[in-house]
């Protein structure tokens, strides 16, 4: 197990590994970004590991999304050729690894955002944008994809050791209504 994988497991991000395909994408991600992670840790040893993870996942998400956007038209044409040549049943056996990686990285990226208690509206915007990009290539509606992505954001919140603080006045008001 490399240091990137260890850091991800330390924040319980492995809870996203709920099926075999996720494990494959996890392995690809960790292999691809371990060198960058170690380099960042050496360059900024005083920064929190979760912030390093956030930076790397932001980079990974941008790269995966850009790859899909730049090749979306050719991917669609290739998929159509498979369907026309092999038929619907056999064409469905071919998997778009770029799409799968973007889906996985988005889940992981939103997880870390939730784990760090980052702004929900920003996470929601990113989830929606990614869902709109992926929807034409999948059988799912953008809203369903967005909801799935946000599930990872909430898992991050659930696994976070950070205690959500409330404004003292809000706490005082709540205490008045409890009695």
TrEMBL record:
Protein name: Uncharacterized protein
Taxonomic source organism: Vibrio japonicus
Native organism taxonomy: Bacteria, Pseudomonadati, Pseudomonadota, Gammaproteobacteria, Vibrionales
